[in-house]
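Fold sample X.
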Amino acid sequence: MLDYEDARHRMVERHLARRGVADERVLEAMRQVPREAFVEPGFEEFAYEDSPLPIAEGQTISQPYIVARMAEAAEIEPTDNVLEVGAGSGYAAAVLSHLARRVSAIERHAVLAETAAERLDALGRRNVEIRTGDGTRGWPEKAPFDAIIVSAGGPAAPMTLKEQLEIGGRLIIPVGRQARSQRLVRITRLAANRYEEEDLGGVLFVPLIGAEGWSEDRPQAGAHARRSLPETIAEAAETLPDPDDPAFADAFERFAGRRVVLLGEASHGTSEFYRARAAITRRLIERHGFTIVAVEADWPDAAAIDRFVRGRPDTGGEAPFRRFPTWMWRNTDVDAFVTWLRDHNARMKGSRKAGFHGLDIYNMRGSIAAVLSYLDAADPQAAAVARERYGCLTPWQNEPGTYGRAVLTAGYRTCEEAVVAQCRELLQRSLDRAEADGDALFDAAQNARLVAAAEKYYRVMYYGGARTWNLRDRHMFETLEQLLERAGPQARAVVWAHNSHIGDARHTDMGKVRGELNIGQLCRERFGDEAALIGFGTDRGTVAAATDWDGEMEVKTVRPSHDDSVERCCYLSGGRRFLLDFARQPGLAEALAAERLERFIGVIYRPDSELLSHYANAALSRQFDAYVWFDETRAVTPLPTRAESGRVPETFPFGL
């Protein structure tokens, strides 16, 4: 069973303190209130993830960070009289009750108000009173208030609420003409008819319904607001043809002068993303002299592709990319690109040939397979824990434990030394073979770096967490640096990797909450404006993915994007395929600088728990320099393995 108290303390440290909430009284109040008591039955295990959760009447319980941020902005003193508008589950009122002398809360849904009152009573919070009513009208009988917190977004701050403030009182409210896209403001009453307003940044809230808010019987008001951001996107969007159209790459000529162009993907199994990256890369190679294609793949496997595209002989051994997830690189779209690259290089000489290189630390997937194989025989219980843990090693997961309480058993710890040794030996054997081919790992320094990093990496990988992610991405970035250095000062590279590696981690939950970094961030820090970070996204379609780590590939239906996501805004813009260039559209960049949900699908896709397992908060226009949109996409087509095809391979890289 989940240790809620421990989870609560970790939430405060990870999601609140690390993101800048500094008021110790607020942090202590968040430590005291059991959020699991305020969520709907069945959602208790998600209570301490920093995300909103559904409650009755189509409403949500706010994410903990927002509750803490608003409470801190209100500057509540122990003697204060506080009003909350939009009580919902009662969670925020419970937090406020630890900060103020008295809390009055209004909720327009009677069912929610009654349930919230019962929860607060069960916790013994006697200084809170809840009633059903129109929150925009306030609570005159309880006024004046030292602080008012409104947990819903209105078109403007209701004058009635402002007038119920004490002189010096603070009103914290999301306002904006775009529903679910507002600015959080703090309004301080300086005198009877004088107020001071401060902008605290972009936020996302449900609409404030009431006499001085949005009208419930006029749904067009909310619908108009939801269209406002999509309309901004539609005005700024540059329409793109199909990726197979030679004109597709025209729009990306603007990035040809960069030292590094990083091309993302919202999943590891979507054909349009591969085809689009291939089209852009072909243009950069053919017309602008890019000679490095560096991909989120293991070095030895990519080295086999590199020998193929450079017309060098096969060194024998197993065909590349034969381990889970085989479809990520063994698919028809990659095959078409590397075949083109081989034909292109056949016309080039020497350093003008373009190479295909893997950035990843040696065969992480193969190493994980080795871990699982060993544990299956030595400790099946530990093997089950490991499978769950590896399946959740994704930076967008709010809490890896969601899909498996990866409690380290004594057996798990006992196996560690043998597993690490096995992985280290696996790496050393591969490097020994590579020595015979002096160009496969281009110098002894690369070999030494891999060997030195192996044990440390495999140990942190075995236990999971941010250290694993950071070590891996630093290694990939350093490999990219060495490729550029080896090729000379004029060398330029294209990087293919997942959005979670490409988009600057500092503007996502990865960096803000979990202290994770990525290649995109490191490239911006190292290359500045010479790096272009380009993300990709989609609304719906199909994707090649597994349900669990090391599971079978399935063609899964991608659910339409979440209402509060940036993908939904792009979908509502009406464009089928387009490019958003934030540098050329400052108005658009500002509109998309607020944090919104963003979808991340890796090699695992679990649509039944999509909101919790595949969405995270991110500021799109700060995360990327540009964004490529496809409204509907389809899964990649995997290549058959040698056994499946029933033919003896005559060519490599894929041994078909």
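Fold sample Y, listed below.
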Amino acid sequence: MKKDLTSQIKQPEVIYVTAAFLLLVVFNIFLSDVLHEKVHRTGTELARQVYDLNLDPIASKDIIATLVESKGFAMNVTDVPHNFANFIDLEQEVFSYHTVSLRLFHWPSWVVESHLFIFLNLILIGAVYWGFRWWRVLSKKVLVAAAPPVKPIEKQVKPVLKKGELPKPLPHQDLNILYGVPTNYNHLFALFFWKTPFPANLDVDNYFKVVIAKGFGELVNRSVKLLPSGGIAVTLNSVPATEVDKYTKRLHHVVYQACLNYRSDLSRGDIKIGVCNYRTGADQAVVYQLTKSALTLAKQSAWQHIHRLPFGHTQSSMLSDSNEHLFEYIKKKHFMLFFQPLFDLETGEILQHEALIRIRHKSLGLLAARHFIPQMTSKKDVLLLDQTVVTQVQKMLDNESGAMMVSINLHAMNWFNDEFWHWFKAQMQGFDAANKLQFELSEDDYLKQHKQLSSQFACLEKLSAGIVIDNVRSAENLVEYKQLNNVCSIKLAYELIHNIDTNTQQQKVVRQIIAKGNELNFPVYAVGVETRNELATLKNLGVIAAQGFYFAEPLQKLADITPFS
């Protein structure tokens, strides 16, 4: 009797599972078709925008490429990241609107919207499973009612911990000692524009002060100002540099939600925002102009409601367009010296510092070396620059008892400048901390010029000063550095560090460099680390120390930097 009932239950069970599987297949086909239609509409809308903006396919190629990229398409197959190129083929479609036809590449809709596929499939599978369980319960009740009574099965008792016994701890995350280090900060200045005015009886100024205070309560310094044009200006201070885009989008959302309280007919496209992110010391007039430009670009765009212009991107171009002589800033001591710490990835202790100079420009704020060094082309300029850095580091080491190693990046011209080395030898006379100095030299410069630099290397070796081979891209030439007795470390090129967590080829090269460095007794350091994933990957590969904005921004005094334990 029981056997007959069981077979009666199992037969519909197979039918139920088959029907559920077919439902899942049909649902995914339908979902894929809907999403593909969405891609087609997006592509057609993109073609319409190109037509409405009257963009020339050749003259405005960069603008069209930006529009295409913002919608998840690419004009060339090489522009699309090929992380899954061996498994998934790109789709190609032609989108047309009147006289405009765009041939674009994109990933299949199920890849782009994979999160939606997974989410909806999980819901459907959960519903099917829930229904299956209820069906099984009802079926078992029929089976039990018809079956003869059986002896109960003894419960399986789970083992319990003995008195005083502790559960096994989770694996220790030894990188946590570094994760709490302060990050680099930016300030955000934003201008808002909306098409529909607020009611006349609303105090817009105070209203948005309350809105911004509630929406960004974690930020201590923030301000809101009502503009004569009717828009508002918002300033958010001390925003983590890695979250600038996140805060920008959040700012637009907070203001949009606040506007809905009085204008329920508004869409997100009716609220436009222009943003400029900048560092402390930036000229506020330049910040305001950049923000106005960003707002204008946002207002002109039918699809981009938020536009951000970083302040730093304008520094190099403004310097190159001006006739200003930056030599005078160094001569008048309008500069600041910062120190970038290098952290041991095992202990969290600081192994050394890299000296970095910043010019205090009258309108552009603090300028990093990458902005002003290309403008200093004369031998006299770069000589004064490196003399200034060495002198300041020397004074710092005299005042900081027990200070660690400090590395200095000499300008390439000064490595071959006899005037600098004569000055350097005289400057080091009577200086007891010369053994705490390290001078960084690019791998390319060493390989091309090491014979011409033999006297310079000898000078540093006599002073017990170290040499750091910087910007190393492969393990091929590491054995060459054994010719020098005072090469103390290897620094990986930034191009090997950036996005190493997702690039297997970079990981392979770094692993080879570390293996060869261990063989030759050269410690390998990483520079320019910006994300947690990059840091974790580098540590797993065997890098023993690293520096970058992920850990801390450069500080003015060695004493300001505290080891983490």
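Sample Y note: The longest helix spans residues 2-52.
Also: The first strand starts at residue 91 and ends at 97.
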